[in-house]
Amino acid sequence: MPFHAQHQQLLQAAAPPGTPGSHRAMHPPLDSIEQLDAFVAQEPSNVIHLLPAIASFLESACVTNADACGLVWAALRPLIAELVASGAAAADPATAAASAAARSTAPARPSSPVCEAIPRVTVNVHGEEWHDDYAWLNDRENPKVLEYIDAENKYATQQLAATRPLQKLLYNEFVSRLDEGQESARVVLADGWAYYSKKIPGQEYSVHCRVNSSGVEDAYLDENVLANSAEYADASYFRVGFLKHSRDGSMVAFGVDSSGNERYTVTFMVVDSKAMLPDRIHGAYEHLEFSSDGSCVYYTVLDDCERAYQFKRHILGTDVALDPVLYHELDEMFYLSLTTSSSGDYILLNSSAQITSETRFVSAHDSDGAGILRMLIPRREGISYTCDNHGSWFYILTNENAKNNWLYRVPVPTTLPEPPASWEALLALRETVIEHRDFVLIEDVQLREHHLVVFERSNCLQNVRIVDMRVPGFTAYHYISFSEVVFSLLPGSLDEEVADLTKISQFHTTTLRFTYTSFVQPKQVIDYDMDARTMTIVHEERVGGASGSGAGVQYDQTAYASRRLFATGVDGTAVPISIVYRRDLLGLNMSPPAVNPVLLHSYGAYGSPANPVFSTSRLSLLDRGFIYAIAHIRGGADMGNGWYEEGKLAKKPNTFLDFCAVAEYLIKERYTEPSKLAIYGRSAGGLLIGAVVTMRPDLFAAALTEVPFVDVINTMFDATIPWTAFEYEEWGNPNDREIYNVMKSYCPYTNINGEQLARNEYPHLLVVGGMNDPRVAFFEPLKWVAKMRGERRKARQRLAAEAAAGGTHDGASLPAPGLERLLLLRIDDAGHGGNSGQYSYLEDLAFEYAFLIAALGAPAKPLLPLGMVMPALIDTAASAVLSQTAVGQGGAAGAEAARGQIMMAQGSWTLGRASVWQDAALTPPRSGPSDDSAHDGIAHPATRGKTRSSRRHRVRRSVDYKHSSTDADEDGGFNDSDDSDDLSRDEHPAGQRRSDHRKRRTKEEEDKSEYRGKTKNGRGQSRVFQWLHNWF
């Protein structure tokens, strides 16, 4: 059962809302032994959730009853002795060897899944024979395909079952940092209400609200109620993809995706009455706009290839089936997108291919169905543009005859006394607003009544130019300054609803709203007064205990640092790198210097920059000594459009070479080493991961990729697959011989090296796909993993046969059965973005992080620096412990939760204090021979029947399983014993270690002084307190 599904059951029996800690019910109460037995029997690693409460209970019992101290010691002494003995035995070489020998005779565990290779040979347009023995996996209706997916999901769960406690610990950390009552920034509409969305603790989805000037809140749409409604209760997926408001706030339209394929069912609701209109639009895409008076909407629909190809108008109260098609895009390389101009006067329809586009417009005030859709400037090959409106002008951002974008304006044709006879005549009237600059990319523009806002990017840095349009010639402007070097800006708000509302409400103001974030700065929504040049933070992401109901670990921004580095590519190009790390855990600052585990991420396609943003979940890696790095490689537009052009089509290999150059730089400069370097990418970034793993497997120890585009040649030859024609301008058309040869050089599916796989030269691999993904089909990662398994088996058999026949190959160089590198696949019943619920997403992330931590041998427990435990929380916990409140009575839940926040610390003693994989208990058992020479994994847990392809929706109807984790052991003052964490000491600079040692001596002296002044019973209690602290 998924983690938070277990706790949905617990929540139903928990204390009423408002009871401290009630929504974080992690386990049954301690006075319900039968329930506790069932809880642990269901999943033994659930003991992790019990430890804080047990510690709290035992300490409280000792405080209130001195006689209990002896009972506690008598009960726990045998357990401690046994655990100490087992640990010593594991460390003894002779005992370890005997244990390994015993394991080698144990029954063989199931081998990795075997996928049948069905020969399929075709001759392509270049006259070459093309072999694709796993093409049959494309058929999602084939029962054997579903059986194979199920087998892979089970196998992945089995191989990482030994990390189940770590997954739970990570999940707890993630949830503990959530601001579960988070609210978005607020936007006031013309009706006087302030609109926003918020989270409800324990619920997966958002609640959309508004509040009036009297402070009365109205929750007009609860996504959780909608998800549990009869229509969606049994859906395999649920996501409200968009929520649009009419300009007067009286009506909302929201689209629900119930499968993950990004086809939305649109429902209309009257906000005041909450009445749902009978109008329902099926198969719509995410772009929908209201007319100015809210009486009709404009929307796009998808074709069978998931391409938005028709533009329609729906008048509310009429039959949807009769909605007229205002435009039909016939060219399969073009798709439609839709927006409203900043002024609110026009609906803008953009028809775009990768490098070519055109825009049509219709008045937003023509809501009676008489509005005419007009062409602005027709498409011209290689020229793309977008436009916005201000008064009688259209402002056009374009790449016409330029490396980077530039901005000009033309009159709105319908406002001229004599409309131009042609688009050429219209262009003859254009005026340059901002000229082209070789090293400055204009990413976006926004218009206000008196200001033009220009979002720029130069040398991997973002800037915002504010132009005062009241001054003729666009010469009066200023830039907003920012203090950090590594940061990101987003126009508007990350909350799409709030961003849309902001666009509606702020045109006639001097306010610019944008989102600012960095690797170390939580996301801030800022209102900038463009005349006064002042900033107001209207919303800030809250981390952990900042809200008073969180983890008990206050996020300390000063504990972390970011840097901008530059690697040198193979052709001499300087490739930017952004890194973030925890200051006290950076190995380069230690004495002697040490290397850090590193997670290197990038994307490198479509001109999309890889932006450094804050992540609460990422702190779980940084607190384990990880460095997180982004490679700003060619193929993205991190350095402008020229940077993008150098990483596409025939120049695509530059993307992969840049990434390898960054990895080599991090290794050369001693930030890390190959055995500590993991890489991550998704979608087109998954192609990056697959390509570099094939090109330079020696550089990486682990690779994580989600929804990877890896079967490049087969996909690009198949025009029936969604988006294929559109993708020709990004990757090229393989019917072109030059492009075909380039694709063959990097396609991951084509270049699998079975011998390298057999020799353990590939890194550990975790591959994740989505069964309903409309962008990267489920069969791409499926075929890739199936082929890797097949090629590895064939190579092992061949190499072993050569060795047996006295050939040149040394069979001893092959890894022993059961010691092959991990090769895992999970196919979720989800779309391109994975699971949509905030808790189910975190559960998936815990699985992935556990894989990375285990594969790199990183610490299982986070290392907490001094000063990160909130004093207020300590006071609360101490008060709870000393309150003499018996467990099971009112308020006990709060006492247990508060004490647990301290005693849980950074994890459970059951995880050990070092690497998961370094624990002797996780040494992989040897197994008997199999088709894959046994297993691909390091750990070989017992077979379990739970699959990842089961529906995830019921998981979303669950509670938060938040249980706070602060470290009471690592530098937190609770553990001053001689056996404190060696890893913690090793990862601090020598001076810091000496300082900590002085602090420990000082505390020992204080404890002795306090001890001498106590009664005999008091001293006994003190011993038990200290022992409990050290143990738990």
Describe the oligomeric state of these chains in a short phrase. single chain
How large is the share of residues in beta strands? 15-25%
Q: Measured on Cα atoms, how large is the radius of gyration?
A: 30 Å
Structural classification: alpha+beta
Detail the poorly predicted runs. 7-24, 100-109, 545-552, 867-1032
Number of helical runs? Answer: 26
Strands, total number: 37
- Cα distance spanning the termini: 27 Å
Domain Peptidase S9 prolyl oligopeptidase catalytic: 614-857
InterPro entries: AB_hydrolase_fold, Pept_S9A_N, Peptidase_S9_cat, Peptidase_S9A, Serine_Peptidase_S9A
Keywords: Hydrolase, Protease, Serine protease
Domain Peptidase S9A N-terminal: 117-539
Textual characterization of the structure:
- The protein has 1032 residues and is an alpha+beta fold.
- Helix content is 30%, strand content 22%.
- The protein has 26 helices and 37 strands.
- The chain has an 8-stranded mixed β-sheet with strand order 30-31-33-32-34-35-36-37, with helices on both faces.
- It is globular, with a radius of gyration of 30 Å.
Could you list some keywords that capture this structure?
8-stranded mixed beta sheet; 1032 residues; Serine_Peptidase_S9A; alpha+beta; disordered C terminus; 37 strands; Pept_S9A_N; 7-stranded antiparallel beta sheet; globular; AB_hydrolase_fold
List the helices and strands and how they pair.
Elements: H1 3-12, H2 33-42, H3 47-64, H4 67-91, H5 93-104, E1 121-123, E2 129-131, H6 143-159, H7 164-177, E3 187-188, E4 194-199, E5 206-211, E6 217-222, H8 223-227, E7 239-245, E8 251-257, E9 264-270, E10 276-290, E11 296-302, E12 308-315, E13 325-328, E14 335-340, E15 346-352, E16 357-363, E17 374-377, E18 385-390, E19 393-398, E20 406-411, H9 423-427, E21 431-434, E22 441-447, E23 451-458, E24 461-468, E25 477-479, E26 487-491, H10 496-505, E27 511-518, E28 524-529, E29 534-540, E30 560-568, E31 574-582, E32 598-601, H11 619-622, E33 627-631, H12 641-645, H13 653-668, E34 677-682, H14 684-695, E35 702-706, H15 712-717, H16 724-731, H17 737-746, H18 754-758, E36 764-770, H19 779-804, E37 823-828, H20 838-856, H21 871-881, H22 892-903, H23 953-956, H24 982-986, H25 990-1012, H26 1016-1031
Parallel strand pairs: 32-33, 32-34, 34-35, 35-36, 36-37
Antiparallel strand pairs: 1-2, 3-4, 4-5, 5-6, 7-8, 8-9, 9-10, 10-11, 11-12, 12-13, 14-15, 15-16, 16-17, 18-19, 19-20, 20-21, 22-23, 23-24, 24-25, 26-27, 27-28, 28-29, 30-31, 31-33
Helix pairs in contact: 3-22, 3-26, 7-20, 13-14, 21-22
Domain Peptidase S9A N-terminal: 117-539
Biased composition (Basic and acidic residues): 957-966, 982-994, 1002-1013
Pfam family, one: Peptidase_S9_N
